[in-house]
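Recall that a protein's primary structure is simply its ordered list of amino acids. Everything else, from secondary elements to tertiary packing, is in principle encoded there. The following example makes that idea concrete.
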Amino acid sequence: MRRIGSLVLALALAGTAIGTAAVTASAAPGGAARAAAACPTGWGSGVKGSPDSGAVPLSNIRTGRHDCFDRIVFDVPDGGDHLGYWVQYVDRLHQVGSGDPIPVKGGAILEIRVAAPSYDPETGEVAYPGDVARPLPGVNLTGYRTFRDTRFAGSFEGETQIGVGIRARLPFRVLQLPDRLVVDVAHSWT
């Protein structure tokens, strides 16, 4: 009988401890414990690339805000899911071909090169209307937690290059989806 009583007491104490831990975690300022657990990345900030190439023109670049990251999307209709790319942090954005520096605002600069020209390779006509050293057309970064600036660096030998100003050097990932390339930059190192 004494063993059963001790067992019931131990279970009751364990239940109280678990309940107290749950209340403490949910009462953390701003739900910090839950936010950190909900946004693990493990993405890293090193160079990411794929040697695939393509000759299908880029049609649009757009961005989006998410709970754990900011996103930039390169739309390449009929580009399939094997677009070549090279994404890396750089100290300064230099235009491929000319080597000219392009100023980008932010604590860090993410250079993104996509194997899709901003022009139609067959006709030479503009497919994406970016102007070198200017912000990306139609992209408004107001309210973004991670992105600070975008700059079009041009197209050279079938590859489009842009720079994204980031709040700080943060982890990122690259996703290849049918007809688009996606780059997500985390809001924090979690």
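Confidence is low (pLDDT under 50) at residues 1-36. The CA atoms of residues 172 and 185 lie 4 Å apart.
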